[in-house]
Design a protein that fits this description.
Blueprint (H helix, E strand, L loop, with lengths): L4 H7 L6 H13 L1 E3 H8 L3 H14 L2 E4 L5 E4 L2 H27 L2 H14 L7 E6 L1 H13 L4 E5 L2 H6 L1 H9 L3 E6 L9 E5 L6 E4 L3 E4 L7 E6 L1 H16 L1
Parallel strand pairs: 5-6, 6-7
Antiparallel strand pairs: 1-3, 2-3, 4-10, 5-8, 8-9, 9-10
Helix pairs in contact: 2-3, 2-4, 3-4, 7-9
Length: about 240
């Protein structure tokens, strides 16, 4: 049985490897089969078939049929998806519990002490970094805004602004004055002031100290600068956009 590589690649999103995908699809086509039969159909080495089938059994993709010779029964794709979803939820909950326990542990306190010690050797005016990846960029911008105590000035498109709403709301709770320049108001929040404008510049400015710039109107890539002098230039730029 020939299965397209693209098809197998998508099946692997269920959390199985190439051999597992081949043997499972082979078993789906037969309903019930022995390891030898599946090995021939899927073109998987017989020396690996038993281990792979055992792994599929543990993951809930197949069931071993009682009797001799040993045969395997395929579990329906719909049921497999439900089992995978359940496993993901269980893993996520376990990971969440572990992280919550870690937050109050001595390990984290030790890491904080190391961070504080290392920060003493860094001049904030010299901090410049590049952040890559949508999740990392959004998280970094959120982090900068959440720590703001005085002001947050945001200049982005409505789509990007929506991704950053949580950080903006947190800043308002800190007592910071939040101002947004965008082509439309994506928030309708009483504590977030929005002026309509389609700016050529895209950035967030926190407490007139830290700037996170987006070279393009996406959150795939950003430049982070922690400099009072540099931030003042962006504060002046934002003021001119705000007055427009």
């Amino acid at each position: 049985m020939i299965v397209e590589k693209e098809f197998l690649s998508k099946i692997r999103d269920l959390g199985i490897n190439s051999y597992e995908a081949k043997l499972w699809t082979a078993l789906l086509s037969r309903g019930v089969a022995t390891a030898g039969e599946l090995s021939d159909i899927a073109n998987v080495p017989r020396s690996r078939s038993y281990d792979v089938l055992e792994s599929l059994e543990r993951k809930g993709f197949i069931v071993m049929k009682l009797g001799k010779p040993i045969q395997y029964i395929a579990v329906s794709p719909q049921e497999v998806i439900e089992r995978v979803k359940g496993k993901i939820r269980e893993d996520a909950q376990a990971q969440d519990r572990m992280l919550e326990e870690l937050k109050s542990s001595e390990v984290i306190q030790s890491l904080h002490n190391l961070f504080d010690k290392g920060s003493q050797h860094v001049d904030p005016a010299e901090i410049t970094g590049i952040v890559r990846g949508q999740k990392n960029v959004v998280s970094h911008m959120q982090s900068v805004m959440k720590k703001a105590k005085k002001s947050v000035k945001l200049c982005v498109s409505p789509d990007v602004a929506k991704e950053l709403k949580r950080g903006l709301v947190k800043a308002t709770k800190n007592g910071a004055i939040v101002q947004v320049v965008s082509s439309q108001d994506p928030f309708r929040h009483k504590d977030i002031a929005v002026r309509n404008c389609s700016p050529d510049f895209r950035f967030v400015l926190a407490d007139d100290e830290q700037v996170v710039m987006l070279p393009h109107d996406t959150t795939e890539f950003a430049v982070w600068i922690h400099s009072d002098v540099f931030a003042k230039n962006f504060s002046t730029l934002f003021s001119s956009l705000w007055k427009k």
